[in-house]
Amino acid sequence: MTISVASFAVLALASTSQDVVTRHVDQARTGWVRSETVLTPATVGSKAFRRLATMAVDGQVYAQPLVLVGLTCDEANGPVVRDLCIIATAHNSVYCFDTRPKTPVQLWRRNLGASVPWQDVETQDIEPEIGIISTPVIDRDSGTVWVTAKSKDVDGSGNPSYHLRLHALDVRTGEPHANSPAEIEGAVRGKAPDAVNEALWFSPLRHMTRPGLLLRDGVLHIAAGGHGGNDPYHGWLFAYDAQSLERLDMLCTTPDGNPGSSIPSGGGGIWMTGQAPACDEAGAIYFSTANGGYSKDAEPRQIGESFVKVVFDGQSYSIASRFSPKENDSWNAANYDLGTSGVMLVPGTDIAIGGGKTRDFFALDRSNLGGYSPTQNHVRQQFDATANGMTTAAAYFDSPRFGPLVYLGGKGDVVRAYRVSSAGLETTPVSVGASTGTWPGTSFAVSSNGTKNGILWALQKKSNWLAVLRAYDANDLTKEIWNSDRLPSDEIGNYVKFNVPTVAAGKVYVASLSSRVHIYGLGLPTTSPIRR
Question: How does 113-143 read in b/e, with b if 16+ C-beta sit within 10 Å?
């Protein structure tokens, strides 16, 4: 089957609650798909649920696959309804597949420039190449997908230059929009060792956009950190106009460095294991930072090892609130990143939650995150929620049995469900799964039809670096409904660290490090997808 790109015009781009257009489903970063009518504990537990197809691409897939459901497209033979899956690769390619047919069909592919070899950044954190790592974001109404791509250009004399570019593509055709691409660049005032004349310039070689993109009120918010802690680096947050792709403002987490530490440049990277910044109803943005300098006085210029709330007024960022633990110095020295799990905004509350590489899990008051005190952490809650800390994001579900639940999957730990309380979380889990995930822990998605038929999808790495996807009853984690190891034909292959499963319209999409995205659902398996 082939499709003419010229004839692929979308007639209707109305919003649908089945779409997954941003990292972890929504801007609160709950991971909860609330309108899934096909996948139930009964259907997933049946023999009909299996791997249906595999979409082959040209590089590793660190970005979460995104899905637009039920687009009506005008083609030569009349209107056709399509489900589009957008896949971005470390080879700097963006793919669009129609996954509604039994055999997925590749509609278009666009490469966004030569990727960067891992040797150039001097760390094997991601290898063999670094291109598109962060999860894109899609606006269904305008039919646009925004992507950040790291690339290496070489001139006629063999001299390299490195770039981090923001691309806006037509989700229907892959064609670039006007003004695309735009360089992600700029400088702030600072005294860090890598500053020049107190101007600290963003380095596209030294930095990577691992967190997913946030789109809010026509503005793209793009977060960045370093490569595997390889100094010099900082944390950065950029605001770009989504239409013109003009930079509106930028914020650096550690502009003045951190003299005498293991990260003299300052650190404070925003990486959050790929989780995107969260955003509340009023538009305030929340993120967490890794090891780095912190201003222990009233001026919040340095915000390493912190939870941070910023406000964007349409032109510039301002730091509204922040929290760094009293353990700041010792955690920095021991490489205990606070900024690994990212931030979730618990629905229906004024609570933000998150954790790091230690066992400490935090519940914070969104109106005042807590600041800094050398003697006491002024937060709603701090407790040991996992056995060995978290380097994956939490997930949420409103359980008809227990009420609101938060799921945590620490490294080397079982999956735990905690009930939400007025303080944050009840400290004793209401349900615990049997399987144990190795490093980096368990990544989640939740699907349900309202509060009915809740399923917790748990993606784990096994000791041999192969991946396994498990489906639990979201109300009772002792009930494993299905897993991808039951049949050889369902196996995922190599594990992609920090990725999360995507659930949309009766299908589950899971990336493999072997340049594949698998589709699970009800039916019979198919052969390899059409590629061109």
Answer: bbbbebebbeeebbeebbbbbbbbbbbbeeb
The three-class DSSP label of residue 374 is coil
pTM: 0.94
Q: Helix, strand, coil: what percent of the chain each, to 5?
A: 5, 45, 50
pLDDT, one tens digit per residue, over 281-307 is: 999 999 999 999 999 877 789 999 999
Is the separation of the CB atoms in 19 and 34 below 8 Å?
Answer: no
Rounded Cα distance, 18 and 504, in Å: 6
pLDDT confidence of residue 378: 96
The string of DSSP letters for 218-281 reads TEEEEEEEESTT-SS-B-EEEEEETTT--EEEEEES-TT--TTSS-TT-B----GGGPPPEE-T
Tokens of 164: 């981090």
Strands (E), 324-357: 344-345, 351-355
Condensed to tens digits (0 to 9), the pLDDT of residues 113-143 reads 999 999 999 999 999 999 999 999 999 999 9
Q: What's the confidence (pLDDT) of residue 1?
A: 29
Per-residue pLDDT, 309:
98
User: Across the strands, what pairs with 287?
Assistant: 308
Nearest to 357 by CA among 381, 339, 371: 339
In whole angstroms, what is the distance from residue 176 CA to residue 183 CA? 14
Query: Mind listing the domains of the chain with CATH numbers?
Result: 5-522 (2.140.10.10)
CA distance 87 to 55: 9
